[in-house]
Structures are given as C-alpha cells and as structure tokens.
Queue: 3 jobs
Job 1
Amino acid sequence: MNLEQLTQLANLKKIEQHPLVPIHALTPVKKFKDTTANELTKAITAYIRLTGNYAERINNTGIYDSKTGKWRKGGTRRGIADIMASKVVQHNGRSFSIMVAIEVKVGKDVMSEYQKKVQDEIIKNSAIAAKKQKEINDQQLKDKQENTQKLIESVSNSIISVTDIIATFQKAGAEKEAEAINEQITNTEKNTDKH
C-alpha cells in the first residue's frame, strides 16, 4: 500500500465512522507523506490502526518550560521506540498478541546508542517470551498426552469391567441353563418312573 492508497483508506474509514454526515461536509484526511520522520511516523501509525491493529505513538521529546526558558526531560525512557504496536494472530486455534516496537528513521538518521540498547533489550526479552511460550505449549502438549493416556486406560478398564460383567451373566446364564436341563432330566426320570 502506498501513501496515496493509505490516504484513500483513511478517508473511507472516516466516512464509515460518520454515516450520517454528508461526504461533502467531512474534512478530508491530509495526504500522508514520508519526507520527515514525523510525517512517516504518522503514516505508519495510521496504517497500523486502519488495518485493525493497535498502535500508539510515543512522545519521547523533552518539554519546554517557558518559566525557566529550559527544556525538561520527558517522562519516557531514553531510546524508547517511536511507535509501540500490537497485533493479535491466530495459531492452532489460540490467540496470541505480538508486540512490535518501531523506531522511525528517514534519510541519514541513525539509531542512537540508547535506541540500540532498547532494541537489544526488546529482542532479548521477545526471545525469552517466545521460549517461555514454547515451554508452556510443550507442557500443555505433555498434559494433553497424559490426559489422553489416562482416558484410554479408563476406557480400557471400563471395557474390561463390562466384559467381566457380560462373562458373569453368561456364566450365571449357563448355570441356570444347566439347572433347567438337570430339572428337565429329573422331571423326565420321575415321569418315567411313574409309568
């Protein structure tokens, strides 16, 4: 998607958000640009949001104090990324949120040492989070396998129990049949003796 298409998408979303306002009465979205870091940051943030994801621009500049005539340090950590974003993805029927930190550079801009440290820390912790998630997934798989095995054993035991019950009924039935036959023989013998 280029910047012109992004601007068109932003205008379409604006129309969707205000269905009762005539199109001619809506102020069009300014065309997105990428000539400065500030403009490109706005475009990236808009793209992420317009595609249904979360993005927040992080204001990491100092604050000018007009009383003292000096700049005060901002409230964010030095080197923090310009944009923090997240996207929910589906994998194997589960939802995962992926966090993305975006440092915007245009032209000859380069990352500061502070920004590189933050980048390294994010990468390190993302790897740790991915490893931890794998351990959780492995444990869940192991638990499922153990539960499946227990279920198989339970069903197997139930089948054995049912088989034993059937055998007991068959044995009881055979004994009753034998008794009935013996009774018939006895009755037949009694009848024969009478004649």
Note: Strands lie at 54-57, 63-65, 70-72, 83-91, 94-102.
Job 2
Amino acid sequence: MTDNAWKVFERWMCRLFGGERAWEVPAECKGTGMFAPEAKYRKKLPDWLVGTPDSMMEQAERQAKDNQLPLVVLTQHYMPRMQSIVIIRLQDFYDWYVGGHNEPPEYDGPEIGYGPPVGREFPNDEESPEVPPAEEQIKLF
C-alpha cells in the first residue's frame, strides 16, 4: 500500500533536519536538534504567495542580491509585528542554516515543490557571510 503524499513529505522533511517522524500523539519530528519543523502539504499553494511572476516569493527573489536570503514576511491586522510569519524556500533555509552538517535525504515520494531558485547560488556554512547578531539586525519602530 502506498503512503499518502503528506506522510511521505513529513518523513522526508524530518530526515532533512536530522530526525525521524514519530507517529504517536502528539506527532512530531524527533531528533532534530534546535529545529522544530512542522510540515504542511497542500496540493496547491496560493498564487499570491508562489507560482506566478507577481507572487510574493518571486518578487523577493528578484529583489535579493547575491549575498541576501530572499524571504517573505506576512502579518495581519492587529498582529504584533514581531509575531509576523517569515517564509523562505526550504532549499535556501537548508543551504544557509542546515547544510554542511548532512546531505539532504533522498526523496522517495511524488514530485513536490518548486526546488531552489534558478540561477542563484547561496553560500554554505564554510562561505557564510558575516552576519551581525539578531539584536543589531532588528530595529523596532
């Protein structure tokens, strides 16, 4: 019997962060160190977020310089600014923050996602640019 695509994706994502998917309640990735990933599989993500030339993610990728990480920050009315949600491509996150520790696991399920941005190279751990501490990067208004 074949696993559902969401189960395959969850197992793969947990292995990407060095862990294994535990199916007991509450279900979670175990052994992922400092990361607590939560996988959500959808047949289609909203066009305003990804997938069209005018989407938020493609706009962030166009505007990012070679040494910058493209990301989208989402908020809603009355949400405290520091509670906003940050969205980046998994490949970018892996390359900047996880890569070098282990290779991505082989993917054994249906084709999912868009893959890394075309024509952009991101530094691995050995080539990461000097980044100031978070306190210096965050400016509250």
Note: The longest strand covers residues 20-22.
Job 3
Amino acid sequence: MLFAAGVPNTTQSTQETDINYGPIKSSFRINLEVITQARINDEKPVSFAPYMVALFVFGGTDHVTKAVAPRNAFQDGFSREWCLKAWAKVGAAPITRACLSDPKVRRELGDSEDDLDQKMRLIQDLNDRAVAGLNARGWNGSAFAGKIKERRAFLTQPISQPNTRTRQEDIAAAAATSTGARYHATGGGHLTSDDMFKSIEVGKRNAEAAQLEKEKKSRLEKMELEEECHGILYQLAEDDKDPNGKQLKRLLKWQEKKSTRVAKDLLVWNAICAEHEAYGTIDEIISALPSVKRWTQADEERLIWLRTAEVDMADTALGRKQAHEKRNLLMAARNMTADEQAEVLAAFSEANASQVIAEENA
C-alpha cells in the first residue's frame, strides 16, 4: 500500500470523484430534458416524484409517456475511462500529486492570518536576502530567486481587524449564515486561524449573555413588582384595611400565585401569610415572606464580561486541549530516560530558535 501526502486546504481540485461529476451532470440533464419534453408534448404533469431520480441517473422508460431516457449517467461518469482520467488529473494514479500545480490549491501570501502565512513570509525574506547576497558578490543569484504569489489585498479585504473581539464576533455571526459571509468577515481566512477557534468561544459567550439578559429583564421586573407590593402593604397597614381586588392580584403575582376571584384571592393571600408566619408589623411581614431573586452587581459584571472581554486562546477548545497535553507531557517527563529528556529539550531549543527568527523578521 502506498500513501501520498495530501493538502490541508482541500478543494474540488484535489477530490477525484468531483471530476467524475461533469459527465454525470451532462447525461442527467439530457435524460431530464427528454422526459420533460415528452410529458409537455403529451400534456402530462412535469412534477417528478423522488423515485423518478433513478430514471434520470440510470436511464430507462418513463411509465407515463413511454419516452426513453437514453443515457446511463452513472455509467458515463464512473466508467473505467473516466475514473482513470480523474485519478490522473488529481495525481492519485499514477501518484504524481498533479493537483498541487492547480492554482486553487496553492497557498498565497496574505490569504490568511496564520502561522503558515508567517512561515511563507519568512521563507520569501530569506530567499530575497540570499539572492541579494549572491548578486552583491558577483554571482548570478537571480538563478535561485523564487517568488511566492501574494494575494491582492483589495480582493479579500476583511471587514474587521484580526485577533480582535470584533473579528471574532463577525465570524461567529457569519458561521450561522453562510460560507460566503464567513469569507467576507475574515478576508478568506482559513478555518484553522486563531480567530476561528476564538469565534466559537465568542458564540458560546454570546449565547450565555443572551440568556443572562433575559434573566436580567425578568429579575428587574420582579424587583419592581416587589417594591410596589411593599408599598401596598404599608398603605394597607396605614388604612387598616384588607386588600382590594387589584391589590390582591399584584400581591399574588409577587408570590407567583394565580389570581381568580377576589374572595378566593383573599383566602390564598391569607394562606400565604399563614404558611410563612407573616404576622406582626409590616417590616416583620415583609421579612417573613419569600423575596424575589435580585439582579446583583456581580451578575451585571458577568454580563459585561461575556459581551466585551477579549478571548484568549487558552479559553478555546484548542487551548484547553493544549493545556491538557502540556500536563500530560509534564507527567510523562517524570518517567523519561536521560536520552528521551535530551530529545525533548532539543525539540524545545529548535522551537525557540524558530520563534526568535520569526519575531526578528516580523
């Protein structure tokens, strides 16, 4: 068995069966046109039931008009000849990886804001310096010059700046609509960019914030009702009267009880007071009765944080997974041999050196 490396940003150019769909669609349309025209000529309905799809795909006779769909679209598209053509065009058989020469597959400078884009810029910069150095010494350095294609900025101008809460809000909103909207929000950024992972977390925070805002509205309304009912109780005590029908409705709503008739409402109110032993002065009655859940400063701060706080990579699913892997590495280090520890340290040194070079050329 042979394995050939693929590319991460897969398009139809790298998928063999996508190429087979060309002849399939052509034959399918021929069958559809023949049967539709026959039904129109015979004044028959042209609304096809789902089972009729098989007729257009494999060909055959229409049971209504007896017209014949002449093509076998499936055979046309997946014949031995077309499969070999598709595999060869992609470079799967023989293994030439021909698809990598397709402009739809190749990365370009500026087509995303990720680590690979920075690495390509670093490669381009190092090549430019090497060529300039050779030319300065009288060599034909231009023979070694390479140029990575750079995407024209105006074609993919994003609507917000990368690595900001605004960008992540745009991506989170676009994810619920279409791929085109996401492309517009990111300027064509790849799904593996930091902003993509952060936008998922932003979406979760926005959902929690929306729920919290509903809770805030409900609590504030209940707090206002409670203040109103306290005023009713003080007024009743001052007037030395039983509550009237309108007052009873408000009092029962405060205690989350259903109001019906005045006489029954009064009995329900008295039962509530008896259940909670709400007797004595008005302050004692109010203290004894259940109070509503209040909207606190801590709740408001939580809501503001959900709506405005910047998202760190450590807050994302990827960040949490990386943190978990780091903890696993620390645990594994305790059982490593000296050679294994040296290998890990060498990997750290190499990573640090690459980071320094990238920062110097940023």
Note: Residues 202-315 form one domain.
